[in-house]
Amino acid sequence: MEIRVIGRGALAGLIAGVLGFVFARIWAEPVIAKSLDYESGRIDILAALNTAAGRPVAPEGPAIFSRAIQSTVALATGVIVFSVAMGALVAVAYLVLHGRFAVRPQTLAWLVSGFGFLGVFLLPFVKYPANPPAIGHNFTIGPRAQLYLTMVAASLVLLGLAVFVARRLSQRFGPYRAVLISAAGFFVLYGVLLAVLPSLGELSANTAHADQFGFAPAATETPQPITNILSTPLSVDGKTVAPGQIVYPGFDADVLWKFRWYSLLDQALVWTTIALVFGALVDRLVGHAKPTPAAAVDETASARRS
């Protein structure tokens, strides 16, 4: 039984992954291409500035995969593998919760998928939104990954705690008041979490690079305009660059907004598809009847024994 449920979750994730890849290929990939074009020009300008200032120039590493591979095979692999894993996790969570709530299997599958979308993507997205390839420094990959995973884990814990508190308070205050109280407590704790975790621009590795070209202090790692940070003019490609002069623009805000918007829509598509497909499959497998919560079963059995 458990294997059949998890298999259906993985199948739902596979279908969601294919749809997510198609969406990303059509809408997000052109935005990624613009981001990479910006990054390429930025690297060239930084190399020219550092050379003119007599500073070392970090060698550019070779491209492991071509753009054709990155925009097709790599993109499909990443989206589909993620979606299959999330579908399987939704199925596992369903197995753990099945029988604890007096709702139809399909409804429970929808709820679990909704909480997955909130905890895995949307709530962490508020603090650490998705960024295109040109945003983010190589020397902060580790800290950024740790912060994001911390945000995901904390969001899931807070969501689970909110559900637990709402259920415990429902007998005393009624379901509606219990949900309101639980939701209020959730948003308070979530706000504290947002305030405690640092912004990416505040990472020690970023502040340590503030005296280099292209690393102006900022709250995020979004590339700022590149300027001549020295007190003396520089000669770059036969042109004189005065102190403080902008030689390359910051990252296009429209491109950044579109990438984040398409990322949000893509994730919503993936999780909605998982919810609908897995809900329909598990409803046919388990049946349409509402299960009796485990607590009610225990109380009934105790009453009969007495």
Architecture overview:
The protein is mostly helical. The protein has a domain at 2-137 and 249-305. Helices cover 69% and strands 4% of the residues. The chain contains eight helices and four strands; from the N terminus they run ααααααββββαα. The strands form two sheets. The chain has a two-stranded antiparallel sheet. Strands 2-3 form a two-stranded antiparallel sheet. α2 (67-97) crosses α7, α3 (105-127) runs antiparallel to α7 (253-286) and α4 (141-173) packs antiparallel against α5. The two termini are 34 Å apart. The model is unreliable at 294-306 (pLDDT under 50).
Overview in brief:
The chain is mainly α and 306 residues long.
Portion in beta strands: under 5%
Q: Into which percent range does the helicity of residues fall? A: 55-70%
The chain-level structural class is mainly alpha
The H-and-E topology, N to C, reads as HHHHHHEEEEHH
User: Which spans of ≥5 residues are poorly predicted at pLDDT below 50?
Assistant: 294-306
Radius of gyration: 25 Å
Main sheet overview:
2 strands, antiparallel
Inertia-based shape: elongated
Strand tally, please?
Answer: 4
> Number of DSSP helices?
8
The average pLDDT is: 91
Distance between the termini: 34 Å
Strand order of the largest sheet: 1-4
